[in-house]
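Possible regression after last week's pipeline update?

I re-ran a chain I had predicted before the update to compare outputs. Posting the input and the new output here so someone can diff against the archived version. Not blocking, just want to make sure nothing changed silently.
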Amino acid sequence: MDLFLQRLFDGLTNGSAYALIAVALVLIFKATTLVNFAQGEQAMLGAFIVLQLWNWGVPMWVAVLVGMLISGILAAGLERTFIRRFDPADHLPLVIITLGLFLVLNAVAAIVWRYDPLAFPQLFPHGSAITIGNARLSWYSIFAFWKLYSCPLATACTSQPNKNRSLVPSSFIKSGIK
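New output (post-update):
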């Protein structure tokens, strides 16, 4: 029974992480009508920037904020420099550009940080948040599951026409998620 519960917790954690990635891809596609194949590499580059800042002694949460800022500026620069130049109605050049950006960002990360696995520091407290028998549910799992069912739903509903906004609590709309 413990093994079953542990596998259930692991499955919920992995499923939540994959669902969050899918929600990000869908939101970008709905906003731009473009499948951005470089989106994962842009997130990977942001994670490496956070790790590098942390290795230089910057506190973790400051490194996360700075990494998000740098990653956002980089993504905006790539969009303005490469993607915006092409006609959005013609999808083939845009797909080729995003695939090229995928390869370039991957190669840059390989040159700077090599292919060796790197350990990322703990963002949440050590130990398990919930223990049932020998099955443990980590703080990361709880965070991923919470994010999966809170923010994407609000973002998706508020990005739709006004009739769907009534489904979302007003606190999300007031917070600027529209």
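Follow-up from reviewer: compared with the archived run. The chain has a mean pLDDT of 79. Marking as no regression found.
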